[in-house]
UniProtKB/TrEMBL annotation:
Protein's name in the database: BTB domain-containing protein
Residues covered by the BTB domain: 19-83
Pfam families: BTB (PF00651)
Organism, scientific name: Anaeramoeba ignava
Domain of life: Eukaryota
Amino acid sequence: MQNNLIEQIASLQNNSKLSDIKFIVNEKAFYGHKVLFGLTSLVLLEKFEKEPNLKQIDIENINEIEFQEIMNYVYQRKVEINFRNIKSLLNFAKVYQIEDLLLSCLEFLEKNIANQNCFIIFDISIKFQLDDLKEKTSKVIHESKDCFKQEHVLDSFDDETLAQISLIRNDLTEIYFFRRIIEWGNYKIENENHENQENQPNIDLKNKIVPLLNSLNFSNLSESDLQEIWDSQVFSGEQLVQLIPDGVHEEFKNKIKQTNNLTGIWKGEMNTQNGKLGFIGVLFQKENQIDGVIQFNIGGHAGKITGTINNLDLDLIYKQEDPRIGYWAELKGTRSFNGKEIIGKGDHGENEKKRKKSVTWKITRDFLEDIISDEVNSISGIWNGTVQGKSKKNSFYIFLIQFVDKLRGIVVFEDFNSGIIEGTIEENKFVFVYKNHDKIKGYWAKIFAIIDEQNLILNGQGPHGNHNKTRKDFLTWEMKKEK
């Protein structure tokens, strides 16, 4: 008897002839019966009592397939709940106060709390204010890193969910949370590579990852943690400095600022149609302007490099000093987020002629620690000078970098010879050693110099020679720093 009654009620589902109420979902009509919907929903029962002549209700925030499940529930007490319809069914149950359907939705969610679903359910618990469910989901997130590896995990997050993320990390350190997000990013990249049949570039994940990482409490991170975050290149140096609160890790922030500035010693390699050319360079950056000098390992050719930097992008022009060769290169490059590497490509040639094939290049910092920036009390900078020998006077310029008590730079003479200069500082006294690029000739010079109080003028003298031989005469050196 009971089964027959259930079957008879089910036969009334969406029967337009016996219907007394019509529901419109995205312009599609569903035919129902007030008595059954009133017994199911307290909200609809109240509405039918207030408006006895009501014939039609427009239903929002649900599609036709999902509302079909509502019809199944009202007429058959059956409903198929899945992750495609859970939000709509849950919303309908709450809006229309259908307690049994709400309990069925909660039962489905609690049964399916697992690593692959934890963030979907966590997001639902916040949206629908389901505190008990939120607590259970948070526990799963606490106990497993795999929650962060699912490719859908960040897509549904909004500002409200992001704000809650920090609240579920009571027993997770900031760096642990960071690593989990990076793991998710790597997981996403691997899947994109696997699915991308045309080998097109990966999408930029930073736009999805960075908003979540902004919830990190940078005050609780150690310096080694900050170094790990910086090395990951998720944040640029400028972003990282802004995220670290004032008065916290000031030395580390200064290190970042120093690294973001390209001033320093660089080693690199150019790939041309004739092969690879190694070089060493000294660069100075002031605001967005770049000045420097490069010396190639083969031939010792040296020249100045100038250009600009805009955020991470560089435009540089290299011109060889020796006009008899007139080599030049126009280069466009990109600086890495951690400031340790620049890669790029461009045109090159001799004098007015441009070679057919472009040149690619890559440079990395030789070393960075303890650079003294180009301020009033620093030796770092561009110096012009002369060296007087027994019968000859030669002018030169030096791009010189100071590393606390050490100096390193590149010297280029007016006769186009060039080489590396290294030295030490003790108070106002300097000892330099110059070595010419030409190892066959092995020319060297040693300079003992004193600097004036304004750190603008260096005067000195010293021996010189070839290989292990020392010439009889001393050289006199005079240098003046460009302001």
